[in-house]
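Subject: sequence -> structure tokens, single chain

Hey, anyone have a minute? Need the predicted structure for the following. Not urgent.
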Amino acid sequence: MALTKLRQQGGAVVLTIPSDIAARAGWHVGMELDVTATDESINIKPVNRVARGRKTLDQLLAGIDQDEIRQFNEAVSDDLQDKPQGKEAI
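Reply:
Had a minute. Here:
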């Protein structure tokens, strides 16, 4: 457990999050966070973050660089054409 204090900065109340806790959460400076309050508790989570294993196939495929895949396929294709077919030479 880490202790921290609220402080005033202009018209806002600021909460400092210890670096090790931010790092464990995968947070970095400048990241946008969603803050919600219920009674005496707050919940903080990254905006637009999808939990691991919860992405759709479309979301996964959208992150693929098509040009990089094409270049990789061309490089592998060239290597396969140079190898003899059938049993490999010993």
